[in-house]
Each structure stands twice: as C-alpha cells, then as structure tokens.
Amino acid sequence: MSVEDRSSTFTIATTEDDTDADIPADTVSDVFANARCRAVLKYLRSRDSAVELDELATAVAATEFGTDSDEVPEDRYERVLVSLHHTHLPKLADASIVSVDRTDGVRVTRNTAAFEALA
After folding, report:
1. Which residue has the higher pLDDT, 14 or 24?
2. How much is the pTM?
3. Which is higher by pLDDT, 5 or 23?
4. Which of 21, 33, 43, 97 has the most other CB atoms within 10 Å of its CB?
5. Torsional class of 105: left (φ above 0), alpha (ψ -120 to 50), beta (otherwise)
6. Which of 80, 92, 34 is closest to 53 using CA atoms?
7. H or E stretch including 116?
8. 11-19 and 98-101 beta bridge pairing
9. Cα-based angle 62, 67, 71 (whole degrees, multiple of 5)
C-alpha cells in the first residue's frame, strides 16, 4: 500500500455481534491512554457501515488537527495513515478490539467492555 494512494483497498466496518473477549486492564489502559487510538475508536463507534482506511486516517487527522476532514493537510493525512496501518490498528487488533484481515479489510470487533471503557 502506498501512502500516496488514497483509494486503499483496506476497509473498516463495525460488526453486528458483540464479542465477549476479555481484555486485561493494563491493555485497556494502554490502548485508551493513546489519543490516536481513542480517536480511531470514537470514529468507528459513530459509523454504521464500512469505512475505508483513508477515510479513517482523514477523520483522525482532522480530529488531531482541529479542522474539517476536507481541510486536512496531505502530510498530516500521510503520517496518520502510516501510524494507523503500522502501529495503532495492530495494537487494537492485539487487544481484540479490531480484527485485521487484509483480504476483507479491517473489521471492528465490538468488545462491549472495551467500548464501555471508552465512554
């Protein structure tokens, strides 16, 4: 995947079913201590349908930059995209909050305990 290619094939979607996986308290603390992870989860929680990775990166960058999505500078978008792909989405996947499938995209696993900790 190229950061210049905003038409990434990765998708992010919420699932209908809750997963009752247990998440250790220190993992929850680690995930939710990171502002970018919190921004990802808040955005995903607000979505009812599939979200492209580039849309997620743009929304997170807009949150961090304090601007509208259409005003996000390209360099900010690229930094967020790379960090989501290489750091934050894998961290969320390791915590069983997001499952990463490069074939079908990135799908959110709605772990009730984790999402409640976000609120």
Report:
1. 24
2. 0.72
3. 23
4. 97
5. left
6. 80
7. helix 112-118
8. unpaired
9. 85
pLDDT value, residue 47: 78
The pairing of beta strand 51-52 with beta strand 98-101? unpaired
Q: pLDDT per residue over 34-91, tens digit each?
A: 999 989 988 888 877 667 788 889 999 999 999 999 999 999 999 999 999 899 988 8
pLDDT the model gives residue 118: 57
In Å, what is the CA distance from 59 to each residue of 29, 96, 108? Answer: 23, 22, 16
* 82-91 core/surface letters (b: 16 or more CB in 10 A; e: else): eebbeebbeb
Length of the chain: 119
Which tokens belong to 21? Answer: 């996986």
The single-letter DSSP state of residue 51 is E
Structure tokens at 84: 């989501």
Retrieve residue 59's tokens. Answer: 């929304």
User: By the 8 A CB rule, do 101 and 15 touch?
Assistant: no
